[in-house]
Amino acid sequence: MSNTRIFGSNRVEKGLLQRLVGLNWLIIGIICFLAATGITMLYSVAGGDMEPWASRHAMRFGFALVLMLIIAVTDIRYWMALAYPAWIAGLVLLILVDVIGDVGMGGQRWLDIGFMRIQPSELMKIAVVMALARYYHAMTFVQSRRLPALLMPLILIIVPAALVIRQPDFGTGLTIIAGGVIIMFLAGLPAWLFAVGGVSITAAIPIVWQTMKEYQKNRVLTFLNPESDPLGAGYQIMQSKIALGSGGMTGKGFLDGTQSHLNFLPEMKTDFIFTVLVEEFGLIGALTVLLLYGSVLMYGLLIGIGCRNQFGRLMASGLAMTLFFYILINVGMVMGLMPVVGVPLPLISYGGSAMLTWAIAYGLILSVATHRHVTLAPKGSGLA
Amino acid sequence: MLAGLQGLALATLGGRLYYLTVVNGEKYRLRADSNRTSMTLIVPERGEFTDRNGVKIAINQPDLTVFMVPEQAGDISATLTKLARILRLDQRGLRKVRRQIQQQRKFLPVTVAQGLDWNTFSRVNVEMPDLPGVITDAGLSRYYPHGRNFAHIVGYLASPSEDEVARNRIYRLPGFKVGRQGLERQLEDELRGTAGTRRVEVNAVGREIRELPPRQDAARGHDVQLTIDLRLQEFALEQLKEEAAGAVMVDLETGELLALASAPTFDPNEFTRGISQENYDGLLNDPRKPLLNKCTSGQYPPGSTVKMLVALAALEQGVITPKTEFYCNGKHKLGQNTFHCWKKRGHGKLDLLGGISNSCDVYFYEIAEKLDIDMIADMARRFGLGEFFDLGIGSGGAGLVPDRRWKRDFRQQPWHLGETLNVAIGQGAMLATPLQLAIMTARLATGRKMLPALVKHSVKTRPDSFEQLAVNPLHLRTVRRGMEMVMEARGTAHDFRRKTSAIKQAGKTGTAQVRRITQDQRDAGLLNNSEKPWRTRDHALFVGYAPAENPRVAVSILVQHGGGGASTAAPIGRALLDKALELLPSVESRNGSEALAANNSEPILGAGATSDE
To answer: Is A184 left (phi over 0), alpha (psi -120 to 50) or beta?
Structure first.
């Protein structure tokens, strides 16, 4: 397995098995634990039954875990080479969804590819981070600060984000933008740029408001005042808060959540699964899960910081932050800190797309970790 | 830096969680509980009414009912149409339901149909899934088996008002009725009972999952036993026929009312079911006022039935003795005015007993001229006139005993002697209810301060605790003798058909003018009562007790615009007294106990023997 000549590395490449063994298995263990939590909660939501959700969730996680490990041990130069093609592929899929996608949950989000339905917007989150990391990798610090160099990143971010928001999936759109902006920040762009960006976004709010669908507007409005409409749009947040709060310090006990088992909670198995968890396991269970997520993603950031190549540095940090936004938005949403935007809690919520996103994103982070000492040619991969 | 951001965000989430679960946990726990559990009231069974012998007169009977809660019905008219098909409701029934839906608050159940048979009831239950907001209830509803006999006493139930719904949530239960009139209303709190509760766990769509302990069973309301004897009450109403009339009968041992009949009567079941507007208007517009309890709320001039009291006042004041005689030539002059006796030709020479038994008006004009009105009024009050006897049925009048003070306070005028003469024959401003007249008679018969009672358990005063009236027993004996003579051969209430072997009764007739008779009318010749329009005919009255010696029961009869007391009221009174003595435990057996005999009859009999000669 001596590929030193091909990769042009100054280090002796490790073998596949060595790379696999060299992964941080504590972190992978935590990820498995979180997924197991998801299986447990879905078991509870089904009223104490593996069917119909928990067993499928377990199978999906098995598939995702293998995928994550494969990505983790795959050479990072393949991923760098795939950055732009992935972005283009993602864009094509988004357009396809727009044209032929199934209509579900009030918007076109899914693409049925036979054995599973995929959400291109989820894949796009990763592709945008990859493409931006690839873009800044090829640049010096000085080059990146030039104004014309701003154009490409903005295109990379705004085009897919706009398509996603159009679907309409406001939450994911925002996550894409946030992920992109993080990379630009990490790439070392001057702070005033972000200030200008912030102001122009504020100015754009009224325009965005115009283009939003009625249900999105309602969600924002009820987020601002959930009690205004307890039986209508505010119902979800109210019931979620009641469930959370009634869990107390230690929760009502496994399978004893009344709010969930009596169907007061909406979207229990997907977006509001964290609520079920808090109702049954209380503050202690909730903080445990949050700390585990935090440590996994903090580790992702540390990988980024410790990476010696720009692509890996930017990609690991960007993906860690993207995953973090997931959790932030979902948990913030069920607690009434954010509008109900329909973002699942990865690993725990039922659903394939979020699981797939996590597997790919964290697989890439682990790949960065595996190749943190690899130096990459500025103009692309050593494959070129 | 990003790590710091992450940490901060996580800390925020954690802090928010802490706030929700620990700081506000209790509040949310309560809300989760109220989310999941629903308190259901268990309807208590309403207390029942019985008569003095335990015959049921207000009961709860199984009733299959269909309700609809408009708020939950969605498309109300579609649901109603479906229901109407199953229940075979006609257009009129539907209109009634629609009207009720319009009038009531939307969360209150509306009765669509009640008294259903099992078949129809089951069909509604089977189709329930297609009938949103429809509730079926196999509950109990009020029924009055002898409704018309007790309508004025027991009253009836009706759907609770807005106020009542706000006060007690039990009234929100489908079909729950509240006492609206009579004892049903006055004893509502005792009759209603206490609702039980059961907690059930419900899911988000309100379906019951299971019952949670503890369950608190409903406490049945208290039963009420009346003092009325159904047989006597029924008999009295039969005797009153369709007249506007009242009959009261008092047990002289206890003061318990054995009959309190007001005619015409009505069917309280109609009210409890929800009376139709036409029938209700019919009752309201009937000039005989079927809804009025004439025994307690009707106030009439007592006519000659007060003459005993006038005689007692005169005897007490020493104005006359039983032997004092006056001459009646048919009229009596007082200044410019002429007062007439009911007998135009006059009675000739009469003593007191003759005056009473012939009901000679002139005799009492003579007495009245020597008496002060306040003395008559004082005597009248001792016998219960002018006093409100609260039977607990929520209505009743106190009548009126006029005196100087009343005249001054209410008419701002001094008293005239002429008015005393009018009061002396029970006319003028004097008013009494049939209940008061019955109590007056009871007091005359026993010499004790009898008080009426309508409900068995509320009898606090036992017979021996009725205090002796502050009236000379010798005078009482004299007056009683007069009342006996009323029923004898030359008395006003003598019944020629009556068998001599029948138990001796004592009584007094009364005929009260409704309109003042002018001199012109008198000159033109008085019309016979039956020739006059109904509204201007005289009221017929009778008071009496029996047996004359050792009295057991007292009655008062009033027939509004019934004509003469002797011809209309006295036969009813006599029949009622006979009926009572026939039905009640025999006098002989009661004599064995010598309760009343020792107190009343013997000493007075002994004294009366001399005074009567």
So the answer is: alpha
